[in-house]
């Protein structure tokens, strides 16, 4: 029988479905083959992205250095703590001691709580996220970041499974509370693209953030799916570009003298605020600048709502230190007659009466005595003699009422109150008009520098460390000659008499080894309601001093606001406890000879001795009373310190470099500058600890160390050395007699 054909609908449908899928797949393959794209994206690019990897090469933020190149702010290696929670991290590992995720949450929390700033409960709460399959690892916030190498090693020694570290960088401020409102601080911030970058928040760190910030590099390479470099491929490296280095005029040693003195006064008198500036009047360089309250930029401890650098951005009524410039104006106008007499006590102008700080006055006294006693009335009579317009014009010549132009942001200009005769009268003794501390220092450079006023500056240079190109350089800049050399000399002598005279208000500021010229200030503080605060504890006390008086090498300006004075003390005492140690120690640090020595000894100008016999040069120096130090075996001189043209006093030090290994000298009594010069010329690695002058060294004199063997030299300030001698027991104290 012939079979009857039956159409199989099921088979037909299956054929259509699978046939259609086949043709769709074929068309897709054909489309990809022809166009090379998938979902609108090039297939080759997708493949390249899959196998091409990149790792970031982190750039260093630029350093902030003192004048000698010692770091004030720099990047340093730190570590970030993480805890791996996912069990997937330990897949395939059977040995529990090698597990890569947290096994014992309680133990881990207990051990870590003793190492980072989180409690056991806080850490355990973080680790309990282990039950969430979407959480692979957790971090510990600020407490787990910026860990030092020592802290990282201590945690590693706990052998806690799952606890790992990621290398990171942090901004490091090795000196703690050190010119903090000048330097500022920087901290990490998350960018819009999710990356984390260190950004300056205040001070120089913020002002020069763009220059300090480096540009990260990257290393690109092709790898397989497991991350291994593919054969035949090469790495492509885009190097990181480090940020620029900023070298300041700040002298780290002098700055530490300032910080130490301010800390002592802060602890003893608890003033509301203080500010100190130390400057070189010959150049305008700022050698130290600080204020209180202040803060530690490393921890931000003590940081308040006041982010102003008060030396530059905060205006004050300066009080009697303004009399320096009133006197200068009178001398310049030819109306200063120091031996003329006037009636002290009070002075009335248009119904307004001003008084001396002793209201009854001292009777008829000379104008010189009036300046020594800080008489307001004497200033009134000087104003009367020279005229208002001449007086105000001279103050403008000194730069008051306008910015100095110092290389720092946000400088205030202050206000010269020229509204009327009463305002001009009160300005003569520093009330009514406002100034910034940096304006006072700038004006004082003209008195200290023979009439030539120097513009203050704090940035020595900004250098690109990648190319060694100097991007910006600070240099001494004259701001004019507000007074003649004769006037400057006359004012300087009058200022010195306030310290040496029987009637002088500055007697407490006299130094043991150096003569001082200066002027005290006691200023009322505005109460915000048109009047002034009352009482000895509600005044601002200050001193603007320079030394040595015959040829000032340093200016120190100190302001102390509202100190809590014990019974029997007056406001100049806390000011002197800052000025005196800062000025005396700084002059000694700079090798400025004391008065009794400098007047009798002749300065010796150094020659260029390169190529000459070291023994002959050493003999020549020795004959002049200069101590020669020869590096090497002798022979021809190939380098020297100080350089040609520098003047040195007998008893000074000259280093001569020759060929051969360097033997260590006895560094005792050497300044940091001299030790740094020896290290540079000899090529030896010398670590310096402390401030002041060399007191001890780790290797004895005559030793010839290797170039890679670090030598440690300990420095002590004159005060520390003096204290050590006082505290050393005598033979009788150590072995008392029966």
UniProtKB/TrEMBL annotation:
CDD domains xref list: PASTA_Pbp2x-like_1 (cd06576), PASTA_Pbp2x-like_2 (cd06575)
One Pfam family linked to the record: Transpeptidase
Composition bias type Acidic residues, residue spans: 729-738
Basic and acidic residues: compositionally biased ranges: 716-728
Keyword Transmembrane helix attributed: yes
InterPro entries: Beta-lactam/transpept (IPR050515), Beta-lactam/transpept-like (IPR012338), PASTA_dom (IPR005543), PBP_dimer (IPR005311), PBP_dimer_sf (IPR036138), PCN-bd_Tpept (IPR001460)
Transmembrane segments: 12-31
SMART domains: PASTA
Localization in the cell: Membrane
Residues covered by region (Disordered): 696-738
UniProt keyword list: Membrane, Transmembrane, Transmembrane helix
Origin: domain of life: Bacteria
PASTA domain span: 600-660
Family, per entry: Belongs to the transpeptidase family.
Name of the protein: Penicillin-binding protein 2B
Organism: Bhargavaea ullalensis
């Amino acid at each position: 029988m012939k079979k009857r054909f039956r159409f199989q609908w099921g088979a037909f449908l299956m054929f259509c479905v699978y046939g259609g899928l086949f043709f769709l797949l074929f068309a897709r393959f054909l489309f990809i083959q022809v166009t090379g794209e998938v979902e609108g994206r090039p297939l080759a690019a997708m493949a390249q992205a899959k196998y091409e990897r990149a790792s970031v090469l982190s750039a260093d933020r630029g350093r902030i250095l003192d004048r000698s190149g010692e770091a004030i702010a720099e990047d340093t290696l730190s570590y970030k703590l993480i805890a791996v929670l996912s069990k997937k991290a330990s897949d395939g590992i059977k040995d529990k001691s090698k597990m890569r995720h947290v096994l014992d949450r309680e133990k881990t929390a207990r051990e870590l709580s003793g190492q980072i700033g989180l409690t056991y409960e806080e850490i355990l709460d973080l680790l309990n996220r282990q039950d969430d399959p979407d959480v692979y690892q957790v971090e510990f916030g600020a407490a787990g970041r910026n860990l030092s190498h020592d802290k990282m090693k201590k945690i590693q020694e706990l052998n806690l499974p799952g606890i790992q570290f990621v290398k990171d960088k942090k901004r490091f401020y090795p000196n703690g509370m050190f010119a903090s409102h000048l330097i500022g601080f920087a901290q990490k911030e998350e960018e819009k693209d999710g990356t984390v970058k260190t950004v300056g928040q205040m001070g120089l760190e913020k002002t020069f953030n763009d220059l300090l910030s480096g540009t990260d590099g990257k290393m690109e390479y092709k790898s397989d799916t497991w991350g291994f470099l593919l054969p035949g491929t090469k790495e492509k490296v885009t190097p990181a570009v480090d940020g620029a280095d900023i070298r300041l005029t700040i002298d780290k040693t002098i700055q530490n003298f300032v910080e130490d003195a301010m800390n002592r006064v802060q602890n003893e008198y608890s003033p509301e605020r203080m500010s100190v500036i130390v400057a070189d009047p010959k150049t305008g360089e700022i050698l130290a600048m600080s204020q209180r309250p202040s803060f530690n930029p490393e921890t931000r401890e003590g940081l308040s709502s006041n982010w102003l650098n008060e030396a530059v951005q905060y205006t004050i009524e300066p009080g009697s230190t303004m009399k320096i410039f009133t006197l200068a104006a009178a001398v310049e106008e030819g109306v200063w007659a120091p031996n003329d007499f006037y009636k002290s006590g009070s002075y009335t102008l248009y119904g307004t009466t001003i008084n001396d700080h002793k209201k009854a006055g001292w009777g008829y006294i000379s104008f010189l005595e009036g300046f020594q006693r800080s008489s307001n009335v004497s200033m009134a009579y000087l104003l009367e003699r020279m005229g208002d317009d001449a007086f105000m014009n001279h103050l403008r010549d000194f730069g008051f009422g306008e910015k100095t132009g110092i290389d720092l942001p946000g400088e205030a200009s202050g206000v010269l109150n020229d509204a009327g005769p009463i305002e001009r009268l009160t300005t003569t003794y520093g009330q009514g008009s406002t100034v910034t501390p940096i304006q006072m220092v700038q004006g004082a450079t003209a008195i200290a520098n023979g009439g030539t006023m120097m513009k203050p500056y704090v940035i020595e240079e900004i250098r690109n460390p990648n190319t060694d190109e100097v991007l910006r350089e600070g240099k001494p800049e004259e701001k004019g000659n507000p007074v003649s050399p004769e006037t400057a000399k006359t004012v300087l002598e009058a200022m010195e008499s306030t310290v040496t005279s029987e009637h002088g208000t500055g007697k407490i500021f006299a130094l043991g080894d150096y003569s001082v010229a200066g002027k005290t200030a006691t200023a009322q503080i505005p109460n915000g309601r048109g009047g002034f605060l009352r009482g000895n504890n509600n005044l601002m006390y200050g001193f603007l001093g320079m030394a040595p008086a015959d040829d000032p090498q340093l200016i120190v300006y100190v302001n102390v606001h509202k100190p809590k004075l014990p019974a029997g003390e007056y406001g100049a005492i806390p000011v002197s406890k800052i000025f005196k140690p800062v000025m005396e120690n700084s002059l000694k640090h700079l090798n400025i000879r004391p008065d009794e020595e400098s007047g009798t000894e002749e300065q010796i100008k150094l020659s260029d001795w390169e190529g000459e016999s070291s023994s002959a040069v050493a003999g020549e120096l020795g004959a002049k009373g200069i101590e020669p130090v020869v590096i090497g075996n002798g022979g021809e001189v190939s380098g020297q310190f100080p350089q040609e043209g520098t003047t040195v006093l007998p008893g000074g030090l000259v280093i001569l470099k020759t060929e051969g290994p360097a033997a260590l000298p006895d560094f005792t009594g050497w300044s940091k500058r001299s030790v740094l010069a020896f290290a540079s010329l000899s090529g030896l690695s010398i670590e310096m600890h402390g401030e002041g002058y060399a007191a001890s060294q780790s290797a004895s004199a005559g030793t010839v160390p290797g170039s890679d063997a670090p030598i440690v030299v300990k420095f002590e300030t004159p005060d520390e050395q003096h204290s050590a001698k006082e505290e050393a027991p005598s033979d009788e104290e150590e072995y008392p007699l029966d």
